[in-house]
Specification:
The protein is mainly α. It contains 13 helices and no strands.
Length: 260
Amino acid sequence: ESLFNEIDNFSFETRLSHEYYAVYEMEYEELAPLIKQCYLECCKSAIKLISKIVFQQVPENVQTALCNFENCYVDHIRKMNFKKCIIEDNVEIATSFIHIISILRKVVYLSSSASKLLSANENKTSFCKEWDEINVPQIIENHPLIPKNEKSHIIEKVCAYLSKIFRSLGEREDGSVETNISNCRDNIIRKLSISFASIPPEFFNVEPRKLLLYVDAIGSTILRELTVENYTSSFSVWWSVVCWCNEYMVLMAEIGGFLK
């Protein structure tokens, strides 16, 4: 009874401060920019939180939930009971938000696939052996899409840094082999994700779209080299790692643009 009496006697005008009551009395058209900004900030915060899953092994049921969310979210926003002007603004933001979620889901899927393959010692050994056999500096040096002034920096970053990372995959901090498969996969995902994330800061003076082009060009050329010249025995591993790297770079670029 006390609760219902409180509800009956509740007055926004007397309970809210002058500033908040002014917002309460606004028309939809006046509120639209405020709602848009609040929703955008909410999506930015969500991206910052959820993007951290790229550094760990993600269960299949979570991947499925991401897929379902991706398929339903924008339609849900469209059906919300708001004025058209507010819905249109929110749909625009939601579409950009879901675009990033879609790329994130692909990164998670590819990291899961690559880590599963690389956790098998014979696959890792074959992968590292083929990496040593490929003349990556020559591939970069000869590639027509990569500017001459960037080639030496890319060669230094790719060859020295990635060679060290590839050999340490599945190893503990003390250098011993991780025997637990789940821990091994987490180790692989964490190390390669950190490695991919370290690439853009090394080329801060290069436009993101050009960096994406360089990464894609090098990866595609390596895959062609392996299949045409070297007859790789671990194509599935290479395909997963190259696609994972490409999607990760796209994800970082898209997140950077969205958060601006």
